[in-house]
Each structure stands twice: as C-alpha cells, then as structure tokens.
Amino acid sequence: MGVDTVFDSDHSPLMMRNTKLPHAPCQRGLKGFHFQPMDHSLPSNPSAPGLDPMLFRQLVRWLLLWCGRLSVALMLLWTVALALLALGFRYLGESNLCTAFLLFLPPVVWLLPGVVIWPVTLLLRWRAALVLGAAALLIVGLSSGWRPGTAPIPVSKDQRGSDVLVILTNNRGQGGGHSLRPFKNLIQPDLMAFQESSARASTYLSDPGYGEFQHGESVGEFTLLSRFPVIPGRLLSWSRGKTTGGFTYAARFEVDWNGRQIAVYVVHLRSPREALLGLRWGGFLRGIPLPLEGWQERANKETAFWLDQLAMAEDLEGHISSDPLPCIIAGDFNAPHLGTIYRQLSRKLKDAHAEAGFGWGFTFPGETRNPLAFGGPWLRIDHVLVDWHWSPEVCWTEESRKSQHRAVAASLRWRQGS
C-alpha cells in the first residue's frame, strides 16, 4: 500500500489516499510510511572503459616522435637525391639516357618533393628542417645557374666606349610572327646572329626597321647583321656520327671591328626533340644498366644520338681552339647549361650569363602552357660564349615574346693588352 498526497495551488495538503504501489516496496517507520526511491540510472558498461589520459599522452608522443623521424629521413633523402642529380647532370649529362632525359625537364619537378616535405619537417623537427633546407637551397643555387639581381638598363650605342661590343643572338625558327624589334631597339646591338633565318641578310638590310645595320651576310640557315664590315662566312659541317649523315652545325664569319679582325661563330646544334620523344614512357630508364636480354643493345642504339652531339661539340671546340682570331660564339646550342655538351664547350670559354647575367636566363620554350614552368621557359640552351680576349659586362635575356626561343644579348669589353 502507498499514500498519495493531493496538494492545492499553494502546496497545502488537501487529502491523502492509499494507493497500491506494485513496484515500490515500503517500510513502516515510527513516524509513518517511508518510500524507498527507485534507481532509474543506466547500468555502466564494463566492456568500454575510458582511455587513461596518461596513456593517451604517451600515444601522442610516440606518434610525433616517429612522424618527426620519418619527415627528417624523407628530407634527408630528397637533399641527397638533389646532390646526386646535380652530379649526374655535370659528369654524365647527355652521355647517359637517364640524365639526358631528366636534363630537359622543368627544374620545378625536383623541387616539388621538398615543397611538401619541408613544412612538415619544420613543424616536427625545426632544427633539422633548417639545416637540410639550407643544404638543398645551396645545391640548387650552385647548380641552377641563377644569378641574383636585375639586369641594368642597356647603354645606348652613342654612350658606349669604342672597346665595347654588343651582340644579340636568336633562333628565328617558329617565331610565330612576333617581332624581335622591341628587344633589338632596347639593346641597340652591334651584331645580330640569327639561326634558322628564313629571311636573308639582304632582306634585313633593306628593311627600315634594321636601318642601323649597314653590313650583313647569310650562309645556309645562318645570318649575321653588323654595324661593321663582314667577310662572307663559311659553313662548319660534321658527318662522322652513327646517326648523323651530314649536318651543318655552325657558320664562321669575320668582322672588321674598329680595325680589329674578330671571328663570330653562329651555332645551331641538332635538335634533340625526336630523341627525347623516344625516351618517354620509361625509355630513359635504359640509362640504368640492367642484366636483361636486349636491354644494353637498345640503350646503345638510343645513346648514339647523344654521343654524336658530344662529338659535334668537340669538333666545334677544335675549330675555336685553333682559330687565330679573337672569338665570339653565339646561338642555339640545344644543350642545357647543366649538361656535358655545354660543359665541353664552356670549359675553355666564358659564358656571358654565368659571368654577367641576372636571374635564370631561361630561353626555351619561349611560352608554354606547362604549369610546372608557370607558362614560361625552363631551359637555358641559347648561349653567348667568348674566349679570353673578352670580358662579359652584362648579359640580357629577352623577358617575354611568344616564340620558341627568346633572344640573348651580351655586352662584351675588349681586354686591354689582348
């Protein structure tokens, strides 16, 4: 039995009545009835105990420890890979299929892993991140050819000294009909060296837009415009290769510059486009010697083109070394500045960009849709090289033009006593 108490609005008891409480046992006390309260709480689940805070902290520490170690290991691996790649480019270059193919890829490809790994390492192991990041930047800086600063405004022809000669070079093929005149008018060169020139020297000399040039000669695909008298050029050919039947790779002109006879070589080595296309989809991996049937034979066949390029560069170097006149060499070498072909030619010569250039100096391809190159060029294959008679003062690279090759210009000072 139980008792119900009925209250009015001000909580005063009006009446009490007995009720049957089937689920509420009661006990009788000395002072009336006493109800035992019912427990409505949910039973605890002994199978799901709470995670100990100390254990949770230990798990977090363990995860951070191993994540930090992993990020440092990946950062170290990337830095070592950059160093090995730079050494491979320098000492193997085009002589190996693997490095030959990788030479022509946008440099951003090698930086992308670091862009992902370095911020994580900085959060977890900041000291290691700073040290390895500095090492990676040093490797990239030493091997990329980047030079700090911005190129100065060119000095006009009237303000230049008589011991200063300015040359501009450009591959005119696939120019897209875009004019070179804005860059030419800015630089005001004394010499203009063209490769794949569809127009002959006579056409330029009759054009009022090139009125500052009174002299010019064309031979083969090569044209030289000059403010000074020019002796007709002769072609340099090479036909001793395994894949090259007969190829004209340069023309030599002589210029009477203020009473001095100088030799100007306008260069255009073979395009590696077809050879590179053949190395796509893993073909470049044949540069790695593997004990597979037919692997080395196929590698030797595809390496023949690059060995011919190296031999052609050696032939050009021989002509320059034996030339009795002071030499300027300009043109489209189709050889990135990191490779062995460029190194073969520049070991006894001075590169105007390396001596006096600014920025990256990229010249090819002039404009692209490649996001890894930010829509611009990513290779420096057009060069101006000089022998010991000259000191490069400034080297300019054309900033923008919708053509395959951007022009390069260099201001060269004659060394006293040469």
Low-confidence stretches: 14-30
By oligomeric state, this entry counts as single chain
- Estimate what percentage of residues fall within beta strands: 15-25%
Q: What would you call the structural class?
A: alpha+beta
Continuous helix count: 10
- The SSE string, one letter per element, is EEEEHHHHEHEHEEEEEHHEHEHEEE
Spatial order of strands in the largest sheet: 7-8-6-5-16-15
The level of helicity is 25-40%
Largest sheet: number of strands, sense, barrel closure: 6 strands, mixed
What is the average of the pLDDT values? 85
Give the distance, in angstroms, between the N- and C-terminal Cα atoms.
Answer: 128 Å
Question: Radius of gyration, rounded?
Answer: 38 Å
Total strands: the figure is: 16
- The rough form would be described as globular
